[in-house]
Amino acid sequence: MMGLIVLALPTLIGSTGLRHWLVNQAIDDPQLEATVGSASFGWLTPVALDNLQVRHVDQIFQADVTEIRTQKSWLGFLASATHLGKITIRRPRLDLVLGSPTPPKPEISPSAPSQVTFSAVVRDAEITLRQQVQAKPIIRIDHLRLTTHVEPAGSGRQWTIEPTRLIDRLPLTPELCDRGLQLVAPLLGQSVEMQGQVSLELESFRVPLDMADPQQQAQQVEITGFIELHQATASLKTPLLQDLTTLVAQLLQREPPEQMQIVDNTRVRFQVQDGRVVHESFAFVLPQLSPELVVRSSGSVGLDESLDLKLQIEVPESLVGTGPLARRLTSQPLALQITGTISKPKLAFGEQRGWLERLQGLLGSDGQPTGEEPLAGAILDAVRGLLDESAEEDRPAVWQRLRTRREERAEATPEERRERSQRRRERLRQLLEEASQ
Description:
Elements: H1 2-15, H2 18-27, E1 32-40, E2 46-56, E3 61-73, H3 74-79, E4 83-97, E5 117-130, E6 139-153, E7 156-161, E8 164-171, H4 174-184, E9 194-209, H5 214-219, E10 222-235, H6 239-251, E11 259-262, E12 266-273, E13 276-286, E14 290-302, E15 307-314, H7 317-320, H8 324-331, E16 334-340, E17 345-349, H9 352-361, H10 373-387, H11 395-411, H12 414-436
Parallel strand pairs: 4-5
Antiparallel strand pairs: 1-2, 2-3, 3-4, 5-6, 6-7, 7-9, 8-9, 9-10, 10-11, 10-12, 11-13, 12-13, 13-14, 14-15, 15-16, 16-17
Helix pairs in contact: 9-12, 10-12
């Protein structure tokens, strides 16, 4: 009789409500409730779960999985409880609410790290992210396919994902740019208007597990890949882009543009390194100024959104003329350094002393530029604004000041323009002398 009960036990659990109890015991989280449509547990046949549903009691997480299949049987799990083998997961649907508060978990005594390892093949997955429960999705990724492993590594384990294309032409939204994309393309952070599509290709993904020190764990994370942007445009209403475009417009004596256009099919390589996201080759143009004016970004963004970026502005000759000062301005990209944070960026010339010395070399002994007074004056204003750290003006005031200066220039008499140019030359000479000391 005992033998018959033991033989029938897997079938009994799989065909009764005991299957729900068994799955909930395996999940071991009082905030989650799981049900199973049907299950197949056999001593010698693979374990299978159909129509698995997992719900959070506060509705901030829910998962619906059409089918889960293992290669190992129940007897195989009993023989090797720490190695689950290969698991196939078909059509999982995950719905997550971002930023939802979770109740503190009761303190428990530390236990030995888990030694469970497995490989999982996920087919036709769908992930939906929401800002609030039942709110309209801000991100939805479907038809996702990936192969992942939890495997031994050194004294612990590591989680890896094989190279794959995670996202294929997902529509760009401001919410997407504020929920992760801003770490790879910080110039898009806090954008209020944008169009286009984004693709994400994962090249490598390695995350160590079972490490007690979160900082040490973050330092050992290895994630690399590419973000590809298709037909993407964004408004220039973010603090970082406003500072940048105001500077460029001032240098070129133009009205600040209102839109940026990302170079089509730009592939931005990124790498998670020492808790920061390093990127390179992000390029965009300012079509309202010139389709040939290219801005390239490289550097890193911290998980706290701190910035350490380098920008190179390639100014075309068609915008500045062909004089000596213009040739020097276009002979190599204008280098800028950006620090601070995405919401409060700080813009400066990357090599201030070298830049000022190059300007000084274009001036005569009396400090006069060779027939390029408007351009020299614009550069003087830009340099003065960047070096004067004590000036804390809000951006609307800066934009209004630029418009006022243009209006004053247009209304000035020839004699007033000559006097203003003379004063600028003198200020430029003094500024260069101070910077070279």
